[in-house]
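Fold it.
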Amino acid sequence: MTSTTKTFTVAITGASGAIYGIRLTEELLLQQHHVHLLVSEAGWQVFREELNLDTSDRQTCLHRLFSSSDYLDSHNLHDFKAPIASGSYRTDGMVVVPCSMGTLSKIANGTSGSLLERAADVNLKERRPLLLVPRETPLNGIHLENLTKAEKNGAHIIPAMPGFYHLPETKDDLINFVVGKILDSLHVDHSLFERWGSEK
């Protein structure tokens, strides 16, 4: 590890777009940052439906995705003994990506029924970065109210809305743009997309 190694929590929920969470985790691990990974039950279903992953053995699935990185710890959502359940365990931030509207509602209203929601609550109470990446459309009034409530209480909202000024040519270009914006908010360097104003 280097002196710049950081510790993050990444939570993947049941909204469409699990690939965003996977790509973010890959990039953080590539840079040797420590990642605590949480995947909701609906998130595992999205792994199967959108990415055609075999999730019958979840640890094997994660091993194949992340090559059993020494910097990755995955947690059961009911394991409240996990370090990230306590504010005394120091991290550099948490990202819920993608963030379902159900998860958003629980976080915005302080309902800690799982380790995911508890970890989010810890980040808010400790004034650490909590990034929520909603992937839903259209949004109704309840969604908008919960986004506003979460933001007013310290969460940073980063909608999964890729830009097009970098002239994306592939699906990966669109995914990398969103993940790059997340990394920017975490103050983690990357080269996932070409920035506006940079030389070609």
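The longest strand covers residues 7-12.
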